[in-house]
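User: Quick sanity check before I run a bigger batch. Here is a single chain. Can you write out its predicted 3D structure?
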Amino acid sequence: MTLFDIPIWHLAIAWATTFAGSIIQGSVGFGLAVVAAPVLLMVAPDFVPGSIISAAMLLCILIAIREKKSIAYQEVAISSVSRLVTTVPTALLLGGIDQRGFSVIFAISVLAAVGISFSGFHLALSRTNLAIASGVSGITNTISSIGGPPMALVYQDQSGKHIRATLSVIFAVGGVISIVCLTVVNKFHWHDLALGLLLMPAIAAGFAVSHYTTPWLDARATRPAVLGIAALSAVVILVRALGGG
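Assistant: Done. Predicted structure follows.
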């Protein structure tokens, strides 16, 4: 049995991973794509990157509404300009590669994002650092839908509300930029949008649960586990792609 040409068991995995990722992102500010994208590229690659990017925008909007009093609009503006600068050439790169090449670039992008997060770098939240992190995030988000780890470097010392609110708006704007650019290079179609809509019930459910997990889910404890899962998945994807499997 299939839905939009996707086997039901693939959809079940997609719903489960996006549900779990939405709980994490709704609680600590990022995590949806880090959890879901690597798994889905192995099981149901049609979901990556466009469908997850489009679906994640619902979560970003819901979080932004919930935390609207803590949005730093100047930071959103700086980040959006920087993301636009890097997203356009990244989308052009993706437009010229096949699925195997995409898998290799995806895996490298995920491992780079994880490495950045585990590097121990400590960047103050300044305009320059925000612009640099946002530029890197624009690249990784367009390739893999994972834009959170680079942003975490400059937001790690901010309050939970500031992180969730501001990053949600940044990711929502960045998602629009990525989708437009992917559409231009023929990497995002109506089918991708339909698959993104299929993920939204799981995302909405995860967001609802995050109302209760936010007070006790510790970002410092959660981040290593989430990034570890992403890194392991990326290694598997890379080995399969390079081995022709």
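The mean pLDDT is 89.

User: Great, the batch can go ahead then.
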